[in-house]
Write a structure and sequence with these properties.
heterodimer; A: 331 residues; alpha/beta; TIM Barrel; 8-stranded parallel beta sheet; B: Elongation Factor Tu (Ef-tu), domain 3; 7-stranded antiparallel beta sheet; 7-stranded mixed beta sheet; 18% helix; binds flavin mononucleotide; binds FE2/S2 (inorganic) cluster
Chain lengths: 331, 293
């Protein structure tokens, strides 16, 4: 038996597998395939203040082991979210991590305030959005703008609710952005969002997506995501990380945990397999057990230890469990 | 005319085994043992299939309208669907043989609404779009409705379902763009006279978008409703990816992008803003929030 519990800052989770924002709506559809209260948490699709239509179709193009999307954050807006989706999650006993997005700092603040008195397990701040106050420069690509949003959200949000900043991999130095948002008051970091990509349709000889460019996701981006988790954990070893990017199996989830993630989110693979989050949680438990881990927590960041440190860890484990066996033998 | 919203079963994910593969013109017809999907099926619903096997590089499911579903009887727990090859996913699928296991999710989507009591109806299928109309025809006949079926395709080899349709209702009208089978022209050519001959109170259709739009216009000209099933590409089929949206006018007059996998695939033709598909109409709910991006 492996202890699967973990924590994201002050949020205790029964297991480390969550959904990824924008890939599970608000949990209701997936509840047809597994009990959403049994996974670590449901991360809702990014909500904004107003209803948003999203971009024109086509919105999706399949790529090798991945896909490109230009959904454009279609959503009902915060009023409808508070009236419908959030109460549904609460009624079904699911932990709700609410993702918020905005096109200027004030919009994030408004959302944090609106959510203040609602049953929110954690806020994930999607800062991979164009900042209209800075010529559409993506917040997450500008450490200053990212920090400004996070500190404003931290001040406006319920102080008992942890805040995670969700970072984009499309930056030169992700550890630098991570440091900026942690100094601004983030309790942890979610990474990674999609990578910017483009597919050309060879029939129309034009970009395949209505939004022209799109976000690349799925197993194709996994090594990039694991690298980002590794770098941020190395730079900020005490900061809890929620890792994601192409997780398809328990083995994939374990890679993220070993690189430094305290928990993981499953995104694109849900489209392929709606039962994936529960399946991955089960597979992860078996993968941990097979390697001699007794808990998720002891595997977090384990790949950063040298092989002799790792050997020492397992040797100490044997030393501490051995006397029990001896005592039993003498009783 | 009053129509009944049909109750919907919860979809299941199950591994189904291919029981039969038959080539039909340019199409491949599959019969798959999938009792869970078969159990809750209503005409108009579809199945979403994972393609490429366990280590596939193709993550998006492929969706197919269901027909020939046998919840009980001789081939109990089987489903049928027809695949037209167009792209790597369907290429993989048509190469699969009897005994292959497929990962299926279904039955999905809103089924065709049925008239509350027997009502004459014309059914119009374009290409493999005839598939979901076959079980619908059975259901309408079982209600005692008079029906006519019009099948069309670009060319004879792309017609589907002529034989089972004839077995079901005796006579069908066939049109092809090139005249290689039936009468030359479009399904909308014989549609008005079929509506008038039958005194039809409803039209049902499935096929390419241009055809559905045209069928909807003919029905509107006869002041009767048209319930049409769209063939959008559906990446997840279960309502979580938002890739399958169409601009649809609601009963309150507001237009929205709605998911064709869960709010469709069957729509009242008059509600779909066909001319705006692929664009972002300025009056769509939430279009103003897109900020010119
Ligand atoms: C269709 C789609 C929609 C997404 N929508 C959001 C979103 O609303 N907010 C967000 O923070 N991330 C969004 N993402 C990014 C995912 O949450 C995730 O960070 C990314 O896809 C990498 O994980 P994956 O490879 O497991 O999908 C979306 C991804 C996809 C594929
Ligand atoms: S196909 Fe994913 S939402 Fe419709």
């Amino acid at each position: 038996m492996v202890d699967m519990s973990t924590a994201l800052s002050t949020l205790e989770l029964p297991n480390p597998v969550l959904t990824a924002s924008g890939c599970a709506a608000a949990g209701e559809e997936l509840n047809q395939f597994f009990d959403v209260s049994e996974i670590g948490a449901v991360v809702t699709k990014s909500i904004m203040t107003r209803a948003r239509s999203g971009r024109p179709t086509p919105r999706m193009a399949e790529t090798p082991s991945g896909m490109l999307n230009s959904i454009g954050l279609q959503g009902p807006g915060i009023d409808s979210f508070l009236a419908n989706e959030l109460p549904w999650l609460k009624a079904h006993g699911a932990r709700a991590v609410v993702s918020i997005a905005g096109s200027h700092t004030d919009e994030y603040v408004t959302l944090a305030k609106r959510l203040y008195h609602h049953p929110v397990a954690m806020l994930e701040v999607n800062i991979s959005c164009p900042n209209v106050e800075n010529r559409g420069q993506v917040f997450a690509c500008d450490p200053l703008a990212a920090a400004r949003v996070i500190s404003a959200v931290r001040r406006a949000a319920n102080p008992n609710v942890p805040i995670f900043a969700k970072l984009s991999p499309d930056v030169t130095d992700i550890a630098q952005v991570a440091r900026a948002v942690i100094e601004a008051g983030a309790d942890g970091i979610s990474l990674i969002n999609t990578l910017l990509g483009l597919v050309i349709d060879l029939d129309t000889l034009r970009p395949a997506l209505g939004g022209v460019t799109g976000g690349l996701s799925g197993p194709a981006i996994r090594p990039v995501a694991v690298r980002c988790v590794w770098q941020v954990h190395q730079a900020l070893p005490s900061v809890p990380l929620l890792g994601m990017g192409g997780i398809k199996t328990g083995r994939d989830a374990l890679e993220f945990i070993l690189a430094g993630a305290s928990a993981v989110s499953v995104g694109t693979v849900i489209f392929h397999d709606p039962s994936a989050p529960m399946r991955i949680a089960r597979e992860l438990e078996a993968e941990l057990a097979a390697r001699g881990f007794q808990s998720v927590r002891e595997a977090i960041g384990f790949a950063h230890r040298t092989s002799s440190e790792q050997a020492e860890f397992f040797a100490a484990r044997i030393a501490t469990t051995q006397p029990d066996v001896d005592m039993e033998a003498t009783v | 005319m009053s129509i009944t919203a049909v109750t919907q079963a919860i979809p299941v994910q199950e591994i189904g085994e291919i029981f039969d593969v038959t080539r039909l013109g340019e199409y491949t017809q599959f019969t798959v043992v999938a009792p869970g999907v078969a159990a809750g099926f209503r005409p108009g619903q579809f199945v979403a299939i994972a393609v490429g096997g366990p280590d596939t590089s193709m993550l998006l499911r492929r969706s197919f309208a269901l027909y020939g579903v046998k919840p009980g009887g001789d081939f109990a727990g089987t489903i049928q669907f027809v695949v037209a090859e167009h792209g790597r996913g369907t290429e993989w699928l048509v190469r699969q043989q009897i005994g292959t296991k497929l990962d299926l999710v279904g039955p999905l989507g809103v089924p065709f609404p049925l008239p509350r009591e027997a009502s004459p109806a014309v059914l119009v299928g374009g290409g493999y779009g005839t598939a979901p109309l076959l079980p619908l025809a059975e259901a309408l006949l079982a209600q005692g409705s008079d029906i006519e079926l019009i099948l069309g395709a670009a060319t004879g080899s792309r017609l589907f379902g002529e034989l089972p349709a004839k077995r079901l209702i005796g006579q069908v009208t066939v049109t092809t763009d090139d005249g290689s089978a039936g009468q030359r022209g479009w399904v909308t050519d014989p549609l008005p006279s079929a509506i008038e001959r039958l005194g039809a109170q409803i039209v049902y259709a499935c096929g390419p978008m241009g055809m559905l739009r045209a069928v909807g216009e003919v029905a509107a000209a006869h002041a009767i409703p048209a319930q049409v099933a769209v063939e959008e590409s559906m990446a997840c089929g279960i309502g979580v990816c938002m890739s399958c949206v169409l601009p649809v006018r609601g009963s309150d007059g507001t237009s929205k992008f709605v998911r064709s996998c869960v709010e469709g695939p069957v729509f009242e033709a008059g509600r779909v803003r066909w001319a705006d598909v692929g664009t972002l109409p300025a009056d769509l709910l939430g279009a103003d929030a897109m900020g010119g991006r």
